[in-house]
Amino acid sequence: MIPHEPRSRALVVVTLSLLAGTVAACGRIPGQFEVIQNQVPMGGCTIDTNRMLYRGEGHLDLSLVSPSASTAYLMFPLVINNLSASSSGSADPNEIAVNSFAVDIGTSKQSYLPPKVQDLFKTLNQDPNAPDYALLHYSLPWAATISSGGGVIAAGVDAFPVELAQRVLATGDVTNSSTSMLVNIRVRIFGNTKSQSMESDPFDYPVYVCNGCLVASDLACPVSGAPALTGNACNIAQDDRVDCCSLNGNLICPAIASAP
Question: What's the angle, vertex CA 40, arms to CA 201 and CA 69, rounded to 5?
Fold first, then answer.
């Protein structure tokens, strides 16, 4: 049987085509362990469990991805444990101890990739034993506990590797249009109760990928007055438009303001 727990990003990871068989073999029961939605970060990159603070689709601007960033796109899954709550006052036997996330980047029926990006993804998917395969299929460690009976946590997941963003940008096939490319990011969570291993239902999240669509302005640095649009609080390359400025050929976002 294919290992239930995904291996680390640097090692071999199972393919999507085999995952359906894994789910059946491991006995995952739909609805027990779920990602409800992707949360919207608040000021200071604070992630709340409020179910009204969600985002139904993402936007990734390749022109804003820093080579030194930990990821090109961050997801904030709101995760729920629907196992039955304990009726006794003792320790919760259905509490889930989360240990990892699995991420698979690909397409859905709604997705579309420019021709050169299609070729790139096809190449990366060719050999599950090759290191580059882990740019699209990888696991990440995570530690948290979720109480049974509807307990929730808000987590953080590196959902699009910087190197993958760089390779997609290098194809030259992604434009400034906010709808030039649409990928599907599938997230699953793994953990354990006191008596069983747990795998969440898969959560599919659409992300539009562009080259420059989140740059609201680009003036010479410094700009007069504080920028009106300061971008996403957690990652400047995603979801929110940002006012930028140029300094010695480098794009600075948010823009540097001149001294009052």
Answer: 90
pLDDT digits (tens), the chain, 260 positions: 233 344 444 443 333 333 333 433 345 688 899 999 999 998 899 999 999 999 999 999 999 999 999 999 999 999 999 999 877 667 888 999 999 999 999 999 999 999 999 999 999 999 999 999 999 999 999 999 999 999 999 999 999 999 999 999 999 999 999 889 999 999 999 999 998 999 999 999 999 999 999 999 999 999 988 999 999 999 999 999 999 999 998 999 999 998 77
Same domain, 186 and 234: no
Q: Are residues 51 and 123 in the same domain?
A: yes
pTM for the full model? 0.86
Q: Are 98 and 49 in contact (CB under 8 A)?
A: no
Q: Are 133 and 255 within one domain? A: no
Please give the residue range of the domain that contains residue 247.
Answer: 215-260
